[in-house]
Amino acid sequence: MPAITVSRGSGLTIGALSRRTRVNIETIRFYERIGILPKPPRSASGHRIYGRDDLMRLGFVRRSRELGFSLDEVRGLLRLVDGGRYTCAEVKAITLDHLADVRRKIADLRRLERTLADVAGKCRGTKVPDCPVIEALFAVEARERLPIVQPSRGR
Fold first, then answer.
1. pTM more than 0.70
2. Topology at the third CATH level for domain 1-69
3. Best-predicted range by mean pLDDT among 18-27, 42-51, 74-83, 87-96?
4. HEC sequence for the chain
């Protein structure tokens, strides 16, 4: 079956869609490849032509990504919407899972901030070979290192 073609005046080109949604053209193509966006019809000259539904869907994806939803989470939300049988409870469950992830990341960032402030606070900024920042980084690496297994001898 030949590709569906539409007249150029009945939709948006990829450039226009990109400008309207503030999503990079390559990102739009990527979303098509991975199935987040459906493949659009093409004009007689082969250009992608997007409609109002594509504009709304891409806006939804962009806003979801800005809120930190992963592509898998966005897919899950879109499956609910595409099926037309979603409930607010299902959307809420995905959102609460994402919120828990965000809160874990915030806690990790707060720990990171305290650690970096502590290490930087120990640095006097002088030109000496003993740098507290470098020492702290080596100390962290040494604590995380697995024990070295010595090769057996005499076998």
1. no
2. Multidrug-efflux Transporter Regulator; Chain: A; Domain 2 (1.10.1660)
3. 18-27
4. CCCCEECHHHCECHHHHHHHHCCCHHHHHHHHHCCCCCCCCEECCCCECECHHHHHHHHHHHHHHHCCCCHHHHHHHHHHHHHCCCCHHHHHHHHHHHHHHHHHHHHHHHHHHHHHHHHHHCCCCCCCCCCHHHHHHHHHHHHHCCCCCCCCCCC
